[in-house]
Design a protein that fits this description.
5 helices, 0% strand, single chain
Length: 112
């Protein structure tokens, strides 16, 4: 096992590494928010499928579970709210949740 440099555990080095991990996580959200936008736009032209609704709920669930770990509590809360609304209201079309989806996408835009 290679020796670990003592400076690797210095507070500044740790904070820098944590900031890098956070930035990487934020970049990883781009495909998810892009997909949310695509699903929302598709729902405006035709009634969204059950699969699209399930995909939106899955994305929201994953964001709700992971964003707070990276200091993105507002995104996590918005995602949790969207997920809860989708669970509670299984009959409305996706466009009824457009405001929540747009808010989630907007919060991501502010974070990057």
């Amino acid at each position: 096992m290679p020796a670990t440099p003592k400076d690797a555990f210095a507070p500044d080095a740790f904070a820098e590494e944590l900031a890098d991990v956070r930035e990487s996580f934020i970049r990883s959200l781009e495909p998810r928010t892009t997909r949310l936008r695509e699903l929302l736009q598709a729902s405006a032209s035709a009634r969204a499928t059950t699969e699209a609704r399930t995909e939106i709920q899955s994305i929201a669930h994953k964001l709700a579970g992971s964003c707070a770990s990276f200091g993105l509590e507002a995104i996590g809360l918005a995602a949790m709210t969207l997920e809860d609304k989708l669970i509670d209201d299984k009959t409305s079309s996706i466009d009824c949740f457009a405001q929540d989806i747009e808010a989630l996408i907007d919060l991501y835009g502010r974070a990057k």
